[in-house]
Amino acid sequence: MDAKFEVTMNEYLPLRDVVFNTLRQAILRGELKPGERLMEIQLANKLGVSRTPIREAIRKLELEGLVLMIPRKGAEVAEITEKSLRDVLEVRKALEELAVQLACDKITEEEIENLKQAAKDFKATLGSADITKVAEADVAFHDVIYNATDNQRLIQLLNNLREQMYRFRVEYLKREDFHPQLLSEHEDIIEQISSGQKKEASETVCQHIDNQVEAVMGIIRKK
User: Fold this and answer.
1) Which CATH architecture has domain 15-77?
2) What percent of the chain stands above pLDDT 90?
3) Quick check: helix, strand or coil at residue 75?
4) How far apart are CA 152 and CA 182, in angstroms?
5) Rounded to whole angstroms, how far apart are CA atoms 67 and 55?
């Protein structure tokens, strides 16, 4: 393991979260490569921590689909596959379509303003060297829609799915050629939800997700 990443302590976060964020960034930036073994002792020595926060971080990374646990081998960085991409985004499409339809009926004026601000915040992050900031801003935009549904079961399902699709979202957002279309779709979604256009909002969010599939498939097939 010759990756050059190192842990950056944060007095406001528990050590396990600091280690998790460090390993997550290393995977997303490609410092820890697909198929690479994650040896607890080596990682603990490299980061100057005990094995416990390493073990906890690996469990969380497995939930996000960034790590696989292989019987008799242990943990390794997960490959991005077409099957895993389609499985996650097919479910996301169905749930997001329901979310925008409910939001069309229930969204408040305050939430509409929050959605507009979230879209501006997302646009402002584009071009950032820190791709996770871009991803978190995109998450924040969709969170406003989810919360506008006022359906806690649906919100919980979407939040659980978020972890599994985080890597795909990051890979998609790396494709700068898709950014203009992405911004346009955000604007269309805001307009359609604000005016209660359920059919149009559903179509836009489905296209939004199909574009993500297309972008990430292009990355997978080049590997």
Assistant:
1) Orthogonal Bundle (1.10)
2) 65
3) strand
4) 27
5) 12
Type of residue numbered 212? Q
140 within 8 A of 121, measured Cβ to Cβ: yes
Domain spans of the chain? 15-77, 82-222
Q: Pull the structure tokens for residue 141.
A: 């935009």
Q: What digits encode the pLDDT tens for the residues 47-99?
A: 999 999 999 999 999 988 889 999 988 999 998 888 988 999 999 999 999 99
For the chain, the C-alpha Rg in angstroms (whole number) is 19
Q: What 3-state DSSP class applies to 156?
A: helix
Inform me whether the pLDDT recorded for 121 exceeds 90. yes
Residues pairing with 74 in the sheet: 70
User: For 65-79, 104-118, 184-198, which range has the lowest pLDDT when averaged over its residues?
Assistant: 65-79
Contact at 8 Å (CB) between 1 and 39?
yes
Percentage of residues of the chain with pLDDT beyond 70:
95
- Kindly state which CATH superfamily the domain 82-222 is placed in: GntR ligand-binding domain-like (1.20.120.530)
CA dihedral (178, 183, 187, 189) in degrees, to 10, reads 50
128 SS3 class: coil
Judge whether 98 and 172 are in contact, CB under 8 Å: no
Whether the model clears a pTM of 0.70, i.e. scores above it, the answer is yes
Residue type, 34: P
CB neighbours of residue 182 within 10 Å: 19
